[in-house]
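tool_log.txt
---
The assistant was asked to compare two proteins side by side. It first ran the structure predictor on the initial sequence, then on the second. Raw inputs and outputs are pasted verbatim so the downstream comparison step can read them without reformatting.
(1)
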Amino acid sequence: MGILQRFRSTSTTWARSSRIRPQRILAAVCLACACALIVWALTPNESGTAVVVAKTDLAPGAELASQDLALKDFPSELVPDKAFTSIAEAKGRHTSAGLSKGSALTASIVLDEQALPEGSRDLLMPIRLADDASAALLQPGQRIRLYSSLPDGGSEVVVEEVTIARLVDKPEGIAAESGQLVSVILSAEDAGRVAEFAGLPISFAILPH
């Protein structure tokens, strides 16, 4: 083969190898998109979630007004279960227990009077029962008697009779707490009695039908 023919053969081979095929362009674009998607998914969300908190210390049974509330950003993994995210949502409700300044407001720490029959003077109040295993026996509609263990020993009847309205699902992860949260139907007087035992373990006995 002459020099001229070798030169032509080499030029043709280089031209073919230097062509950019459409398939390669498409593959490169797909790879770039995949990398961008991975980076986006792994980038932490630092914006947080706005949660309603108490602007001042609040007493049990206090009616929530706009001036009592504020919004505070919480990291997503620290947002309490069923937390209020707008002041309008919490305004006008009543607290079921005392709240300290900066405490997050959730559906479990306000009284839900709207779920009761019209004209009823009873209240719905969340109560955390100390014994998870025993609380598994409870069902909505059951009547129970509430007891509290006293710091110096012994126990005391908190309320003679309340009715279980519902068992509140326990959150998972960092926000989880020990003890079963239940919503009970009781009078305003009994609600005040329960509030006196805030912070103490509450146990129960199931009353016969």
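(2)
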Amino acid sequence: MVELLFGYFAIVIITSALFGVTRKNLVHSLLWILLMFVHLGGLYLLLNAEFLAMVQIIVYAGAILVMFLFVVFLLNLKEETKEPVFIHSWQGRIYGVLILLFFALFGAFTYKKTHTGSFTIELIDKQGHTKTIGTALFNEYLFPFLILGFILLVPLIGVGIVAVRRKANGTS
């Protein structure tokens, strides 16, 4: 039964991610990405990571996707621009597939499982998922966590600047 649910979640995640990337309407694209985030939370539930599942649904499906929707509505896109896109040519598709195939094969042939880490299943069962994630995040990965916060702050500042400029120009 678990394998069947995993297959369902995997198929829906992959197809909704593809639909989210390939749709021309931004709102439809964001709705497909919302479906992907919710199913990713279900996949975390299958892995017995309840905390990560709730964080996935609350933070990503809730907060970040709503922020994307506000950005789309703030930019007030009335019509799509018709510009030539490189990916429409068959050479671009072949180059893209070859690059992805190269990285997939490179990763498959150079993968070595040497680092097991200090967080075992017994430790996670003893401490709990939340405490283990918090310990790892704020002890071992504090600097990347802070850098990620600043990286996520940059688009928010950019949207504010675009909104102020559009209001100053009278184009809002």
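---
observation on (2): The radius of gyration is 21 Å. The chain has a mean pLDDT of 82.
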